[in-house]
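Re: that chain you flagged

S.,

Sorry for the slow reply, it's been a week of failed gels. I finally had a moment to sit down with the sequence you sent. For the record, here it is as I used it:
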Amino acid sequence: MSASARGRAASSGGPAAPAAPPDAGLPVPRTARYAWYGLLLVLGLLVGTAGALVQAAWLPGGLLLALLAATGLFYGGLRATGTQAGVVCAGAGWLLAVVLLGFGRPEGDGVFGGGVGELLFLFGGMGIAVMCATLPRLPRPPR
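Prediction finished late last night. Pasting the structure tokens below so you have them in one place:
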């Protein structure tokens, strides 16, 4: 087959190269992804600490505010990284902060006094993290 015949065959419906999926986006370098994961871990520590303090201070509204902040962090981690690992990093930081604050000190001082609000905060936050980790990846909007 001559070169011009091959060119006509390729342009007239021959096999084409596979196109990239529409939601592929730009490739993210590995170091940038690890930086996102580290940032989400630190944000999880901060949101867990702030949530533990706020939920006990203003019980019905503070609990709702703390769980909304955790939801925003977990879903934001999913959307920022595009993987469930973003939710896991944010959730690990959040859980680490909540567990460490729950231990208390030998003198008896602790952030959590024991009660329904603390349990709702702990189990609600873990449930929200699981829900965000199991969400399907949504296609990104066209640019």
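What I noticed first: The two ends are 41 Å apart (CA to CA).

Talk soon,
D.
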